Amino acid sequence: MKQSHKKKKILLSILALFLLYAIWLSFNVLRFKTYRAPALKPSPLEIEGVFHIHTTFSDGRKSLDEIAKLASQADLDFIILTDHGNPNYESYSSQGWKEGVLVLAGSELSVSRGHLAALGFELPSHSFSHNTEDAFYEIKAGGGFTIISHPYSKTQWSWGKFIEYEGIEIINGDTALKKNIIASIPSLPALLMKPEYTLLKMLDSPHRNLRKWDQLNNLHPIYGYFSLDAHLLYRPALNLLRLHLLLQTPLSDDFNTAKHQVYEALRKGRFYNSIHAAAHAYGFRFSAEEGEKTTPMGSTVLLNSPVTLHIKAPFPFAKEIHLVHNGKKIFSSNEESISYEAAHPGTYRVEVYLTERSPLAKNIPWIVSNPIFLREDEK
Ligand SMILES: [Zn+2]
Ligand SMILES: [Zn+2]
Questions:
Q1: CA–centroid distance, residue 252 to ligand 2 (Å)
Q2: Torsion angles phi and psi, residue 342, rounded to 5
């Protein structure tokens, strides 16, 4: 009799704990919102897209048609498919405008050092080599460029001979999902209410990738990418991470011209990355000014006299802006507009952290810009 009473008590306590947890989670999930700056006037020169998507052309769960529909609902200007293959011919030939979204297809190559995303190449007559260095030069010869995928996770990258890859992934969405699924069990029920909440909770700090990126930038300019690596959960995933490209003319309706515009912005590093589900980053700018000339992020600027770096973060919610020089934070501010006189050569880039209440951990940068490189005149 006494024992069954005890059992009942334990059961009731577990139930009470579970209820408390459910209330706590619902409370947090329901008050979660994605921060926005609705007053900003959209510019046709800034477009948003998602990089690194798998479809049923390789191991993705949805077809391109279904994904394009979701991309259109997520107001994306472009998506970049990177189905597995050396290259993936099917995916390549599916490119075009779909549901008002520019669909571009590179490929994610399996090479001797790991996974390498190749974009902007002409279709080769033979498969790209399995040897990393050979594949790199074949892609380049075909007019393409490369981005190192998930250097420290999944199939890790093995660093070898120095090669000027054009890009490196800073955040990889699929890594976060696979690595943190167990740790995220407490927030999994939120998938049913606000899936973006769960995805944000799964992200972890990209500081190891950022450190490596800074080291590589000491050797040659290389651009950083927030990469989705989506295989499933496309609807919330397409709202998780974004690339924001700064174009020189509005995106063309002509497919080939638009494709060139997007790849040109990526090749030149004229873009920044954001965690869109936490807050909409539209309108951020990082540029260098020498006299009359304003140079966007991604560029190399000669340092004949001090160069003024401008940061614009016109967001009505709390954030902290970090200016990073050769991997070290040299300045931080919560202003919306910042000018900084840079007198030393090196790599300058910007990280912005949300300081508002958010499921995004405080040590994860909400925005990561591409760098501006200041070089001394070699005379
Ligand atoms: Zn991969
Ligand atoms: Zn992938």
A1: 28
A2: -95, 120
Convert the pLDDT of each residue in 22-57 to its tens digit: 888 887 888 888 888 776 777 999 999 999 999 999
Determine the distance separating the centroid of ligand 1 and the alpha carbon of 36, expressed in angstroms: 32
Distance of CA 221 from the midpoint of ligand 2 (Å): 23
What is the per-residue pLDDT across 319-367, written as a single tens digit (0 to 9) for each?
A: 999 999 999 999 999 999 999 999 999 999 999 999 999 999 999 999 9
Nearest ligand to residue 156 Cα = 1
User: How far, in Å, is the centroid of ligand 2 from the Cα of 42?
Assistant: 31
d(CA 115, ligand 1 centre) in Å: 5
Among all bound ligands, the one having the nearest atom to the CA of 155 is 1
Residues forming beta bridges with residue 309, ordered by sequence position: 288, 340
Cα(230) to centroid(ligand 2), Å: 7
As given in the structure block, the two tokens for residue 88 are 């993936």
Among 206, 210, 203, which Cα is nearest to 236's? 203
